[in-house]
Design brief:
The chain is of the alpha+beta class and 124 residues long. It contains 4 helices and 4 strands; from the N terminus they run H-H-H-H-E-E-E-E. Strand 3 and strand 4 (113-115) form a beta hairpin.
Length: 124
C-alpha cells in the first residue's frame, strides 16, 4: 500500500487510495462511520497534544507518539524519578494484551523520550 501511494502522483488518486485503505479496515462497513479511522485520528491528536517536543515538532513524530498511535494507551506506565546518582528518566509502557513493553529514555532531562529498543527489533 505504501509502495502504491509513492507511485501515484495525482492528488485525487492519492485521496482515493487513502479512502480505500480505511474502507478496507472499517469494522462496521454497514454504518456511515468508520470507527477505526476515527480512533486513529483521535490517537494522532492525543499524541500531538501530549508528546510534542517543541513548537515545531509534532507528537506523532516522536517515539512515544508512534507507539501510542499504533497500540493506544498503555495498560500501565512505570516512571523513574531523578535521583542524586542519576538524572536519567525512564518510562516503561506495558501492553498486557499483546505481551509487550516499550522502554523510553530521556537523555536530556527535558522530556525528550526516545525508544530504548528500536521498534523493528522489538519482536514485530
Amino acid at each position: 500500500e505504501r509502495k502504491k501511494l509513492k507511485e501515484v502522483s495525482k492528488k485525487k488518486d492519492k485521496e482515493e487510495l487513502f479512502y480505500s485503505f480505511w474502507n478496507e479496515r472499517d469494522p462496521s462497513p454497514e454504518t456511515n462511520k468508520n470507527e477505526l479511522m476515527e480512533e486513529y485520528f483521535q490517537r494522532v491528536v492525543y499524541a500531538n497534544e501530549n508528546f510534542g517536543r517543541g513548537s515545531s515538532d509534532y507528537g506523532w513524530e516522536t517515539d512515544r507518539g508512534m507507539i501510542y498511535i499504533l497500540f493506544g494507551p498503555p495498560d500501565e506506565i512505570q516512571r523513574t524519578n531523578p535521583s542524586s546518582t542519576s538524572n536519567m528518566l525512564y518510562q516503561v509502557w506495558s501492553y498486557y494484551k499483546i505481551n509487550k513493553q516499550f522502554v523510553f529514555r530521556d537523555l536530556s532531562g527535558f522530556g525528550d523520550f526516545n525508544l530504548e529498543t528500536p521498534f523493528f527489533s522489538a519482536g514485530f
